[in-house]
Amino acid sequence: MHGPAMPGWLLVALCLWTGAVCLARTRSCTGAGRRAAVDEAVMGVGMAAMAVPASAAGPPQWVWTGYAVVFGAAALRALWSVRGGAGHHLHHLVGSLAMVYMALAMTGGGTGPHTAHGGAAGAGAGGGVPLVTGALLVYYAVYVLRSGLRLVPAPAGTTGTAGTGTAGTGTAGTVPGGRWSGPETAPACRVAMGLAMLAMLAMLAAV
């Protein structure tokens, strides 16, 4: 994507690390928790690939079409899970659709996603629909704040699950004793990917 190289590579590293942690979680989860971890691992790796700075690579147009197809399939899978009553997959559906949107936007104008800024060519290098980009930015900002607050430890002496981040996160089916089986692991990964998505949408909006 467009933007300074150093922040871009940091974004790639964050997404790769998050995807690797999610992949590791699949070994300590079962059932719905494992399926959610697989979905998030695919999302993390896909985001890392899409976040590679424009100055480092210039893939052909079909690569972005490939991203759209892959995450379109992921969106259909998440939609099916939502219809089946798995509410936590609604966020996966939004994330997959956001990836499809960004991939299609980066092919805008037929100039290629890695055309340099400036000039007539750079003016057509994507950017997406401002209304859609703005709505996704708001969604992910709210999601990150809400999920981040759940990770804040509850004050001593209080009861309930506030601050644990375990409610409705899709970590049910965790295998006891697994290295990545902590109740905070999945919410922390989702916060990290939410922040990465915010950064990528901001880069898209700046094109």
Mean pLDDT: 77
| Number of beta-strand segments | 0
Number of helices: 7
Which percent range describes the beta-strand content? under 5%
Gap between N and C termini, in Å?
Answer: 9 Å
Biggest beta-sheet profile:
none
- Based on secondary structure, the structural category is mainly alpha
The low-pLDDT segments are 109-125, 160-174
Secondary structure: helix percent: 55-70%
Q: Strand-and-helix sequence, N→C?
A: HHHHHHH
Q: In total, how many domains does the architecture comprise? A: 1
Can you offer a commentary on this structure?
This protein is mostly helical and 207 residues long. It has one domain (5-206). 62% of the residues lie in helices and 0% in strands. The protein has helices at residues 5-25, 31-50, 61-83, 89-105, 119-123, 130-150, 185-206. Helix 1 (5-25) packs antiparallel against helix 7. The longest helix has 23 residues, at 61-83. The protein is globular and about 50 Å long. The protein starts with a helix and ends with a helix. The model is unreliable at 109-125 and 160-174 (pLDDT under 50).
